[in-house]
Please model this.
Amino acid sequence: MPPSLSRRAFLKAGLATAAATTALPAATRAVTPPRTVDPKAELCTVLDISKCVACHECVERCRQINGQPILDLGESALLGPQAPDRPAKFPRPKKPFPTMHPTSRVRVQDWSIRKRRAITSRLTPYNWLYVDTLDVPAFEVDGDERDEINIPRRCMHCQDPPCVKMCPFGAAEQKTNGIVRIDPAVCMGGNKCKLDCPWHVPQRQTGVGLYRHLLPNFAGNGVMYKCDRCYDRVAEGILPGCIEACEYGVQTIGPRREMVALAHRLARGFAHKSKPPHQGFRDFIYGELENGGTNTIYVSPAPLRHLMAAAEKQNQKRLRRLLARLPKHKHPNPPLPDGPAKIGAILGRPHLRRVGHKMARANNLTWALLVAPLVGAAAAVFGFLASGRKTGRDQGGRHG
Ligand code: SF4
Ligand code: SF4
Ligand code: SF4
Model:
């Protein structure tokens, strides 16, 4: 049993395996993910989290293919990825780090020490996917029972990504197949993408990247890292590692239109089965409409508001534990951040709140800036014509 697999998850895993090998109605049978993906289509993933048993195989695979196996944290593991033909993507910072001036301006963020590299319970530059386990009211029975729901979290791959639009260096890019990635060769580690991301996903590692060669003491502070949806594998038609690794068929990847239809079907089924049955299915879906639409759609067997409440309670507990560990002489009264988004940003554990279209206003502003000269020119022409007509009328009136 993997170290992170709880007894309950283990039982669930056993049941899920048994179910997969038994004749089941079509609606509950595991969806076999496609073995390959169309690299050109706008790709979206649907995560049916009712199937996730928190075995962490996906997390392990992500770390392997990006440069660091979980279970082997020896130095040799850092020297290269599992696949010899692909470069490791996880950071390899050079130490000592350049001293920033003024020193208080940018905090060093170092996840490269052995103990921190091993962390799998949050997003870090060395961990682009984690699995959260949430304690929610039982969703298929009446009464006081509770259920556990496991939810893998990573970048949402937004359709209108603020991290791309707001990056001052153009380091973040959105590919035509919907994948959003940050180019480590261009990123200066300025943190703008993290601040603007509604879920504060990108994570910074100091001491790596372009800034070390430009103005190492004055500008930038490393590189921002996050899930790139295995863009290089996908370009070759190969499934992202985490999808390939999951034996329970939690994730399905495909063209967005098909994935949205699949998510709606699944959510309607969960809404119908829940106690009491729900009229609408929207409370069982997350990601389809968030931030103007993302290419990561979660479908939950329990109403999302229960997951959101459980995630926030858990994050508050984690934050209190974290603050309690701070040295009292340095932080006698540490300020408590307010709001689940800020707490999630500190903990590297994205929230589950509904998110409006963050770039809509900025897009409108950009549009307004682009069309402003044309509108101004048109107004001037109309104004000129109108004044000409008026002058004509006035002159006509005087003459009449
Ligand atoms: S998504 Fe799949 S591989 Fe990942 S933890 Fe859940 S069941 Fe395991
Ligand atoms: S979730 Fe955040 S990091 Fe990911 S694409 Fe959206 S804005 Fe960018
Ligand atoms: S898509 Fe690739 S990079 Fe992203 S979480 Fe999965 S394995 Fe990791």
